[in-house]
Design goal:
By secondary structure, the protein is an all-alpha fold. The protein contains 2 helices and no strands. Helix 1 packs antiparallel against helix 2. The longest helix is centred in the first third of the chain and has 24 residues. The two termini are 15 Å apart.
Length: 50
């Protein structure tokens, strides 16, 4: 596994954890989904995820 793959995995896991925390705070599955999609999209926009 290369460094790029490890970094992408770390960013995706961070997005899932962040989305999970937001979903728990709002006690909503849709908040989890929207927050996770938003965080992943921000990662692509900032070129953190390639």
């Amino acid at each position: 596994m290369g460094a790029k793959t490890k970094l992408n995995t770390a960013y995706l896991n961070g997005s899932l954890i962040g989305g999970g925390l937001i979903g728990l705070c709002f006690q909503s599955m849709s908040a989890f989904v929207f927050a996770t999609i938003f965080l992943i999209a921000c990662g692509f926009y900032n070129r953190n995820i390639r």
